[in-house]
Amino acid sequence: MLSTADNELLTKTGAGSPMGELMRRYWIPAVFSGEVEPDGVPHRTRLLGEDLLVMRFTNGEPAVLTPACPHRGASLFFGRNEENGIRCAYHGWKFDAAGFCADMPSEPPESNFKDKVTIKSYRARERNGVIWIYMGHEQADPPPLPNLEWNLVPESHSYLTKRIAQNNYFQTLEGEIDSSHSGFLHQSFTNPFALNWRTAQEMGMVYKMRDRHPRFQVKETDYGVLIGARRNAEEDSYYWRITQFLFPFHTIIPPYGNDPVFSGHAYVPMDDEHVIALCFSYNPVRPLSEEELGYLRHARRDGQEGLHPTVDGFLPPIPNRPEGAWWPKHHIDNDFNVDWRRQKDAQFSGLPGTWVQDSGMQETMGRVANRSIEHLGVSDTGIIRTRRALIKATRLLRDYGIEPDSVWDPDVYRVRSAAVVLPREAEWVEASAEYRETNESVNFAAV
Question: What mean pLDDT is reported for the chain?
Fold first, then answer.
């Protein structure tokens, strides 16, 4: 369990908080390129406790500004996005991407007042369909974007979604690096994987369901934490599912099969009680097929959600709410539409699909989980070590001004997760290295 002080250090991400200051050292993937268009409607978001407007100006470049006009506080959301600036609808004050006042028509022509007024702005960069935001110190040169493979491949190779969860970011992150829950929470009694042994992918599922108390080994790395969950495979082998936590809130889930689609999340804190779960799925070497895209968009025919929210899995867009188009229809206020009858005869939980099952557990912990009352076992080793890594990095920055190496070295993120059968005598980190390299010629053979 965590002390109250460590739990607060881990979970508070607003301006001035130690964890918030750590996260501000990194680029934040927040908005999809298609959500803003030149001279179009601003996109509302909320990051690290700050409400922001993301828009695309006339020149096509993204801009990020605080929404309150510094004149009288009216919202720039209603402003005119024109001629490479946003003009307040109240008195016509206009601001550029750097936050400088470019025009102040309500003041006399001879006035230089506009040169004394600015608005808070943040840097933005765009790559392969994602707008990244840097919320670090205004005078500091930002680091390079992290070389996360899901954002380096062409857009045709990847599929991205978002959803809003009503809990602290670390509850969602902990769920992703917890390999032991999948044999219970995600279990389907009618899953064909439980019956068939024909393919490598099916074998991986069989190993997971047959051995539901994996043994964990963990290694701290320059990007974060490498987590290995070992299950019994055959008499002379183990099945390893190898997951990464990457500073400050990225994960990669172990795949299945010889031509895998890798998936994972960036769990971006909106504030201490809400998180943007940006989900990615990608193939490193080829475009996603129509069959794969169909599954990612629509999940299973029986109405069960997959890892991604389905295209019809959201509430109608909610005006005047950050990320208003990404609030899911399965949420804590309707008990995630649990199906008690289905729990009796079809699946372990009765919750309608993978992400709903995860979110259903995470949101019910409370908006911010009280970790001083929990009881952790050996299956929580990966979670314990990830907490330690984040707390250690936060203290080093707070107390000594030391940033993690991953802030400035984008190539530490060139890693993949893995799911592989290894001889029992093999050392798992060394033996799995070839599967975790971001090299197009790598042998993907796994289960």
Answer: 91
